[in-house]
């Protein structure tokens, strides 16, 4: 039976849905950034995670797995923190959160690939993993650029006395 789900599959679908929802929400929030690399990354997050969320939603419906609606508590707290920030502080907090979330999501996908029972969810996880790893690489590259920019700005600033 293709729709043979275990507790692991249900937990995976719920956690992946919560993470995917947050990616779209935070991506929309990050479009306010003045930094072009952050804006491009945020647009990519909205596009890629919206597509993955739709696919996951249809798989979960077929398996009768209820998915969470909206942000979970952890992502609500992070969103509240991000909403208060602007400029470089926002960019750094957003991209740092993206690195953490994509590391977690990669582990979650690997966990489903290795331990899931539902073949459709396992295929979803193995199709999604390379995209998430690409997002993680992009986020790390952007964070490195932001860090070197901050160092350059500090070095060219007025001399301290």
Largest sheet: none
State the oligomer. Answer: single chain
**Shape, principal axes of CA atoms:** elongated
Q: Approximately what portion of the residues adopt beta-strand conformation?
A: under 5%
Tell me the Rg in angstroms: 18 Å
Task: Work out the helicity level.
Answer: over 70%
What is the H/E string? HHHHH
**For the terminal residues, how far apart are their CA atoms?**
73 Å
Count of helical segments? 5
* Total beta strand runs: 0
Low-confidence stretches: none
Mean pLDDT: 92
SS-based class: mainly alpha
Outline the structure in words.
With 161 residues, this protein is mainly alpha-helical. The chain is built from 5 helices and no strands. Helix 1 packs parallel to helix 3, helix 1 packs antiparallel against helix 4 and helix 3 runs antiparallel to helix 4. The chain is elongated, with a radius of gyration of 18 Å. It starts with 6 loop residues before the first helix and ends in a 5-residue tail after the last helix. The relative contact order is 0.17. The mean pLDDT is 92.
What's a concise summary of this model?
The protein is mainly alpha-helical and 161 residues long. The protein is 81% helix and 0% strand.
Topology:
Blueprint: H1 7-30, H2 36-62, H3 73-84, H4 87-115, H5 119-156
Helix pairs in contact: 1-2, 1-3, 1-4, 2-5, 3-4, 4-5
